[in-house]
């Protein structure tokens, strides 16, 4: 949008054009920054491309401008919703013209307040405070898992309270929460084949064995094939290491609503197998903050690991701040995730914090990781729907949402991933056990044969209300 | 980044693109037209994502056909390498040339002597006598860059998500500068950049580097109205009312959590199957199951409502996974037919 002569325009029309061009540039920059703040993946050169696009299509038609900006600024369908939401504000400000209020250049480098909802700003402020508080607990990571969480429990429940009441308010309304701990033997042999199948389905990191490829010359094969041509080597086959290894990050929600719904013995066994069999797996527990427990899961016996899990369990009503926990994870251990990492989030998606923050962090995680799989114990119920607000917000950012309460769930997950690939259409909604239960109307038991949410609610009374 | 060559479509208009789509019976919404216009005028590669069967590949074919350009298609797959995508030397021909003494290191001498001695220690392995155009095998990327046709070709890099990360990296130089580096020949740069269309089924995340170089277009599954229009254009032999019925049922099926939701391509196949059955009237088949299906379909008449039997018997054209077919039980079939009935009554 620079002028051909590069010099100042002397006439009034020229000044007006300059003002409009400045206004457009500023609003475009605001828009791009607002998109990034909202977690959208906007390439670094996108604003330039978008500006050139606007120069082609003009500003006469709102839909055309939206299409042009979307094509230039975005690179992922998942960001369309965020884009459309922010575009309305962009268009309103653009239409208001350069003379609206203060100089548009004044707050370009500011906090983009006009794009943000004041309530969101307040929440972000609160979040920042929370983050600071979280910072004070940095030292906790040096303490033992049991100590740190035990301290949290003690500090946060001075009055004791009515735990049953609190629990009733914390459970997600969309799935079962039946206590099942103690029902699964540690180091179950049943999990061997299932886990091996899951490993095959997820393997994306090169292991030790070689296969056809293009990394190195395969001298042995070249010599072998040269026998057919009298020793003349006509071509040199290449080889590379086969993708047989998995790198994983586990982020495990240790709130009571989760640990009551998943078999703890199974959970510990699963984590320990991942540590043992996969290339480099790290395990973090979280409720309102996040702690790395890789050593606790890895170093001792299975029973000791189970003790650690018990010690880590958050109290009733302790709350789960998934977004904040992921933010802490990003700040303190960003190296735990790279483009070969499969991230497993084990949680019921009951977010007690800021949902926008959760979206932001998951967007980061999704961009950085190879894939993100969400394991939800509540999804074992045939009537489960991801309507809890945290789960609903997280859904666009995950490659698959799977039921996760026992060995049969892992088997189904492995089956789907083997067949469809992690990028395919996989998840709880494709679980044939769920379809069968829905068809037969047998919602009394879940996919693992346990009572479903409906029956649980009937026996336990009200268990509702995602906050 | 070097200066970009001038795009050959810098003066293309929106009306011309709309006309191109119309002429090829490609039903394109405004956002598709706008994005294609930008890709052509800015000379940027276009990354098209969407469900299989949404018409991504067809988009490139339409552009090539309408603008009189050659369509150079590179179908990606796991393990795709530079040799298959870019260029390769004709090793057998080189070997024969060296052995015959007509070319290669020390070329021009006595054939027997050269063959016996082989290349000497001072021979340049990149002797131009065997690393020339004569021995070069162009693969799609290089062919698209070196095209000297009047109109630049349309380079379709199809299903990039099937290829490895390494191939994506190889593609970056082409996408950003329309050039590739061939060690033996130097840098090959397109005099007139091809129109590049990269498609992806979103089976894996693409690299930021690739996305940064492209304009982005997501082709959503067609709406009921759009799909009806598509069927009317692509399957003109089918009655319009029946087309709306089929489109309504396809739209209803997409609401189900299917393994592979039907795309527009599958709906077209389905419509053609139904049209063929109605047209054949069952007379073309000597007997067996095919005759039964045709008979049941023939009973529908050219513009009569689709019968449950016809829908059931032809679902294989629409659904490609056994689990998806099994999902269509009696209850869902009733809902499909109800949707079809509504569409017919509102048409």
From TrEMBL, chain A:
Q: Which species? A: Halogeometricum salsisoli
Query: In its UniProt entry, what is this protein called?
Result: VWA domain-containing protein
Pfam families the record matches: VWA_CoxE
* Ranges of biased composition (kind: Low complexity): 435-447
Q: Where is the composition biased (Basic and acidic residues)?
A: 455-467
- Bias (Acidic residues) occurs at 118-139, 156-166
Highest taxon of the source? Answer: Archaea
The region called Disordered is annotated at 99-175, 428-467
From TrEMBL, chain B:
Where does the secretion signal sit in this chain?
Answer: none
Taxonomic classification, please? Archaea, Methanobacteriati, Methanobacteriota, Stenosarchaea group, Halobacteria
Query: Which SMART domains does this chain map to?
Result: AAA (SM00382)
Q: What is this protein called?
A: MoxR family ATPase
Annotated stretches, region: Disordered: 102-129
Q: Which Pfam families match?
A: AAA
- Point to the regions of Low complexity compositional bias: 111-121
- PANTHER family named among the record's database cross-references: MAGNESIUM-CHELATASE SUBUNIT CHLD (PTHR42759:SF1), MOXR FAMILY PROTEIN (PTHR42759)
AAA+ ATPase domain residues: 42-225
Gene3D superfamilies according to UniProt: P-loop containing nucleotide triphosphate hydrolases
The superkingdom of the source organism is Archaea
